[in-house]
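Proteins fold reproducibly. Consider a sample protein:
=====
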Amino acid sequence: MIKLLRFLKPFKIHLAASFILVVIRALAELYLPSLSADMVNIGIINGDIGYIKLIGLRMLLITATGICAFILAGYLSSRAAAGLARHLRQEVFAHVESFSLREFDRFGTASLVNRTTNDITHLQNFVIFALRMMVMAPILTVGCLILAYVRDAMLTLILVAVTPILFAAIKLIIGKGLPLFRTLQSRLDRLNLIVREGLMGVRVIRAFNRDAYENKRFKEANFEYASLGLRVNRIMGAMTPLITLIMNLTIIAIVWFGGIRIDNGLVNVGDLLALIQYAMQVMFSFIAISRIFLIIPRATASAWRINEIFDTIPEIKDPPQQGREQPIGNLEGYIEFRNVTFSYPEAENPVLRNISFRAVPGETTAIIGSTGSGKSTLVHLMLRLYDVSSGSITVDGVDIRQLPLQTLRRIIGFVPQRTLLFSGTVRDNICYGREDASEKDIVRAARVAQIAGFVAEMDNGYDSAIAQEGKNVSGGQKQRLAIARALLKKVPIYIFDDSFSALDYATEARLRTALLREMADSAIFIISQRASTVRNADRIIVLDEGRIAGMGNHAELMSACHVYREIVASQQAGGETA
């Protein structure tokens, strides 16, 4: 947790001021019993009304000062804690954004969301409470023991004897609770995952009539989380009653032995009242400490989970000692795969084996193959979402691992297999890769992508709203909006990963014709399972179980590649015109 507190550095003034104000509040609390003792010993016993009024006025002023100091300290500590949470979320999000797909796969989306929100909130709550109580409680405890000793050393021994018992009880309970909090957070990750899948997959769930099954999954995960939560709360909840019981017994002992000492003339009534108040303050201090220890285990578990993110070094990063970013104009878009082999972590066999080919600007390279043949993986390697296991991928003769990631990804216009639109407007989504685009360029990209007519029919045109993940438009419209987004970048390399699957054949034919005309000087990659989509490409690469089974144009492959012929024949038999 200490590693994360470095994010409090910008709030050093807030922390210092809060510390001083809490000390003032603690000193005020310590001074009040002494004043009440003097009021009884001098004012009440002697019947001095003037002295009683004077002490009463002092007590009011000191109480008001303590309250004001505590309120202001709470405000400053809340600001510091909120700033810590804000900076942490920014840093966690930025670090997660640098992850390769391998790191995303390792953590899982639900866990990353939970760590960025829930875990940071636990740390924020800890800082708020710690800045108030972790300073005040020790001062009150030590101060009360010292001042009680000054009033009566013998009665103070009761408080001193009880203190280690209280610490032992707290340590025992915390020792049992801390490991359970880490497990509790893991179960919360599981619960969030099921909720996320249930909400995002509601159409599939209802289509397959699996509502009862999903409810059962959620019920089981929710029961496991709730059961462990109850167990943790039972353990940690025993702390406050236990401390209260011990301290109440302590106060009874102080009153008992104090009464005896008063009878013997060894202590004044006012001093006994002060000792009782000091005992009460010690009790409240330990209750505050116990509450801190209620928060510490959860905050510690959350800090461990956040540090796990920061300690994860992204597998894919910019090359060291890189100078200024290479201008896009210097890269023409010649791409070459040289004996590329790639394996996913812990996979028995490589997904791609010894892939070698060359693509040049002005030509279309199509990649076709059955499901699981490695088509999308090949695209991910070009974008450096993963790094090759062996071999190399070069752009204009430069290994992409030697290029800054921003440079590499700025020269590629990518339309993914799973189309994703962002909440906002049509304009926001089209301009996602080029925010400074003119209206003319936006309209041109929409026309080439065959989406202009649909946009014109929307109520607000290009300012019409797009729902989260584009759920208010059809699959074909989402694909064409994604294509317009890629076109607007005007880059030397374009990749279309199964980006025409939701289009009818007539729309696809018009779109491909417009794309070839618009991107005549760029290197184009089309990944598809449709033979009709790739047949007019300058070069078709046929993948089969991660290997190149054939390479050439349509006519060459029909005569020389049996895998390609089987794909074409199966689609013709299914009613598709090749």
Notes: Residues 322-328 have pLDDT under 50 and may be disordered.
